């Protein structure tokens, strides 16, 4: 029956479409990451900065504020040593964050950075950051963690303030401190 | 006649009776094993009505708690489960299966096909639904309670902070998704391959057209929803971090994936109603539909646009200005094809010989009230204004105006319009009109004040509220109770119509048009075993 064959062909194609769309749902994950990094959407900053800035724009000043937040259920003490820093675009700057594990167990943590306003995220480059690694702290241990960053010379002219925020997550369950050492 | 027996029919008859017999099998097994599109359509419709009552009872709990400020009746935790389950049951249990039921009943009759193209799969896609909703609703009786994160189940509420029952929820969504996808494949195969000779695409009734487009929407987005809940499942149980910032994922990604499904989903719930109303208004205006071709293209445009507007649900999550502008203008653009449709319905009525039987009353109310919902949608689409409206009762008012007098009135209109064909009896017109007017008043009373409290700042999904919102909330609750109670009248009318009443002629509406009116009422168990000739 030709009708039956036609139906079989159509159904096969439709099932293929279903599979493609299921895969597309997962493809949205990398697409989203690429878009966020390319356009600095959502305050997402990219990984380690490899480029170089030609020279320092001494004439311009940008105030960078620092925020440290603990995610829910995170008990570490976590703060920047200074609330803000006035920087020149193009210059390399450094800020130190303090973290301490007050518990009696070794713990692993991961800091996730975010830049606000989000349209400035693409112009905020980190050359070194403690957020590139996980932090393992023994009971009571305290560390100073560095972030080195450059504010791009092409930062939009109407941005005078930037906020770099870190959220610290407890990932002990995911990455046991011993294994990470 | 048995020359055209489909493979599905053969399977059906093997178990029960020999090939010479054409009526339905006897007893309960008729319904369990049936592959007949009319039986399955009927089961879908009854299932959807049962879910409508269950989802409605959840709404009654919500409105009872909101009757007065303060916490009176339920705990906030249970209130959250009620808002979540109300949304899930109404969307996936009531509205979608009702349209699939109508599609099952009417599409083969409208295109002159003997049955759906894949009758056995049809049976399976129906029977998945009771399993899915049994699973979902059973979570309410578990120790940790049912899903409490809203029907939009945003991560991390639905992952990191979810109750244990979230896994049941995920599997229930998977089952519903599989059911919908199979239903959609069946609809497309029936429409594209089983049309009677002469029934060209542009001769198909609009209900068939809107369902064809809806089916493609379903196939495109239900797998994305399945992917979304699969990612949740992996985050919860297998240590991935799709939506967990701690592991390098992003909760905002969840909203993008969800709304990529979610926005087409809202059109899935309204397009078939557009189609049904496009059959009903011409019938009671005694004029052909104005602008048939433009209706088809408008439906297709709405379906296309539905894929590029999803982030208008996310204006406040922090998307860049260019994104806000793009999604705002794309959303506003949907008003154009929707305006074309409303214009065509009004123009169809213009200078027609109008009569207002119950289906027409529901259809006219559909046009007016859906348009109000469309206008509040335009207000919400304006990104800077949405910052104020977001997550308030204004949003609740908006989507209830498009879903209750939109989708549900569309379903009521269809039910009254085709009940004589299904049962062979005329329904009680007086009671039908009473049902309409009580629903109309109750529904407006329930949802119209929500615009005001929303604009004044009352947030949604909260069991308590500021004293200033007390009066409007009491009005809303009274309206909701009366709308809810009215639906038992509908149940009574339908049962009365099934059990007896004035015998219905083959074509009970003198202005009606279409192949379904060429067969006797009630529609025989097997129809169009010899394809009709369409000129």
In short:
Chain A is α+β, with helices and mostly antiparallel strands and 181 residues long. Chain A has helices at 2-39, 177-180; strands at residues 62-70, 77-80, 84-87, 92-100, 107-116, 124-129, 135-137, 142-151, 161-170.
What are the defining features of this structure?
heterodimer; A: 181 residues; alpha+beta; 2 domains; five-stranded mixed β-sheet; 36% strand; B: mainly alpha; Cytochrome C Oxidase, Chain A; 66% helix; 0% strand
Describe this structure in words.
- The complex is a heterodimer of chains A (181) and B (535).
- With 181 residues, chain A is an alpha+beta fold.
- Chain A is built from two helices and nine strands.
- Chain A has helices spanning 2-39, 177-180; strands spanning 62-70, 77-80, 84-87, 92-100, 107-116, 124-129, 135-137, 142-151, 161-170.
- Helices cover 23% and strands 36% of the residues of chain A.
- Chain A folds into two domains: 2-39; 46-180, Ctag/Cox11 (Ctag/Cox11 (Pfam 04442)).
- The model of chain A has no long low-confidence stretch (mean pLDDT 86).
- Chain B is an all-alpha fold and 535 residues long.
- In chain B, 66% of the residues lie in helices and 0% in strands.
- Chain B is built from 17 helices and no strands.
- The longest helix of chain B has 36 residues, at 76-111.
- The interface between A and B is large, with 39 and 41 residues.
- Chain B: Pfam families: COX1.
- Chain B: One of its GO terms (molecular function) is heme binding.
- Chain B: It catalyses: 4 Fe(II)-[cytochrome c] + O2 + 8 H(+)(in) = 4 Fe(III)-[cytochrome c] + 2 H2O + 4 H(+)(out).
């Amino acid at each position: 029956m030709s009708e039956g064959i036609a139906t079989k062909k159509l159904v096969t194609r439709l099932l293929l479409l279903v599979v493609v769309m299921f895969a597309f749902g997962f493809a949205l994950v990398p697409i989203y990451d690429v878009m966020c990094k390319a356009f600095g959407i959502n305050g997402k900053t990219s990984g380690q900065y490899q480029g170089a800035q030609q020279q320092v724009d001494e004439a311009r000043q940008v105030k960078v504020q620092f925020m440290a937040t603990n995610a829910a259920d995170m008990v570490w003490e976590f703060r920047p040593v200074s609330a803000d820093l006035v920087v020149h675009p193009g210059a390399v700057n450094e800020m130190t964050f303090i973290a301490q594990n007050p518990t009696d167990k070794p713990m692993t943590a991961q800091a996730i950075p975010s830049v606000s306003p989000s349209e400035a995220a693409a112009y905020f480059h980190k050359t070194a950051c403690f957020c590139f690694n996980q932090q393992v702290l023994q009971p009571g241990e305290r560390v100073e963690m560095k972030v080195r960053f450059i504010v791009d010379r092409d930062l939009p002219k109407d941005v005078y303030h930037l906020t770099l925020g870190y959220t610290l997550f407890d990932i002990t369950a995911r990455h046991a401190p011993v294994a990470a050492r | 006649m048995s020359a055209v027996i489909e493979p599905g029919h053969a399977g059906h008859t093997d178990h029960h009776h020999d090939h010479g017999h054409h009526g339905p099998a006897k007893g309960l097994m008729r319904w369990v094993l049936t592959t007949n599109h009319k039986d399955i359509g009927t089961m879908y419709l009854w299932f959807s009505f049962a879910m409508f009552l269950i989802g409605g009872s959840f709404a009654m709990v919500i409105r009872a708690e909101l009757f007065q400020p303060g916490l009176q009746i339920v705990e906030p935790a249970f209130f959250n489960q009620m808002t979540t389950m109300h949304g899930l049951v109404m969307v996936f249990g009531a509205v979608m299966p009702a349209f699939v039921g109508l599609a099952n009943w009417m599409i083969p009759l409208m295109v002159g096909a003997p049955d759906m193209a894949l009758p056995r799969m049809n049976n399976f896609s129906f029977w998945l639904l009771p399993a899915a909703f049994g699973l979902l609703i059973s979570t309410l009786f578990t120790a940790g309670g049912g899903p409490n994160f809203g029907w939009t189940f945003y991560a991390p509420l639905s992952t990191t902070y979810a109750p244990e029952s979230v896994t049941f929820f995920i599997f229930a969504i998977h089952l519903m998704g599989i059911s919908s996808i199979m239903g959609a494949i069946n609809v497309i195969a029936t429409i594209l391959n089983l049309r009677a000779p002469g029934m060209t695409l542009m001769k198909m009734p609009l209900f068939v057209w809107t369902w064809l487009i809806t089916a493609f929407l379903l196939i495109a987005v239900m797998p994305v929803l399945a992917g979304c809940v699969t990612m949740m499942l992996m985050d919860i149980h297998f240590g991935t971090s799709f939506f967990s910032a701690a592991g390098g994922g992003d909760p905002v990604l969840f909203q993008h994936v969800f709304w990529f499904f979610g926005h087409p989903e809202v059109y899935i719930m309204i397009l078939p109603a557009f189609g049904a109303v496009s059959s009903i208004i011409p019938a009671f205006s005694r004029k052909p539909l104005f602008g048939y071709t433009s209706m088809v293209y408008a439906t297709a445009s709405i379906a296309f646009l539905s894929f590029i507007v999803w982030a208008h649900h996310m204006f406040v999550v922090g998307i860049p200005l260019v994104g806000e502008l793009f999604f705002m203008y794309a959303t506003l653009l949907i008003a154009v094809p929707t305006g074309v449709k409303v214009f065509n319905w009004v123009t169809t009525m213009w200078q027609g010989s109008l009569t207002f039987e119950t289906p027409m009353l529901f259809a006219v109310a559909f046009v007016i009230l859906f348009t109000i919902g469309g206008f509040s949608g335009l207000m919400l689409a304006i990104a800077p204004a949405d910052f104020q409206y977001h997550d308030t009762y204004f949003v609740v008012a908006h989507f209830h105006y498009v879903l209750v007098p939109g989708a549900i009135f569309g379903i009521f209109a269809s039910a009254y319009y085709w009940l004589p064909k299904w049962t062979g009896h005329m329904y009680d017109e007086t009671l039908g009109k009473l049902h309409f007017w009580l629903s109309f008043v109750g529904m407006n009373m329930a949802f119209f004040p929500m615009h005001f409290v929303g604009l004044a700042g009352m947030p949604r999904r909260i069991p308590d509220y500021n004293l200033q919102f007390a009066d409007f909330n009491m009005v809303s609750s009274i309206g909701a109770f009366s709308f809810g109670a009215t639906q038992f009248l509908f149940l009574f009318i339908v049962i009365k119509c099934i059990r007896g009443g004035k015998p219905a002629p083959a074509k009970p509406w003198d202005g009606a048009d279409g192949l379904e009116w060429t067969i006797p009422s009630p529609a025989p168990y097997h129809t169009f075993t010899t394809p009709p000739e369409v000129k």
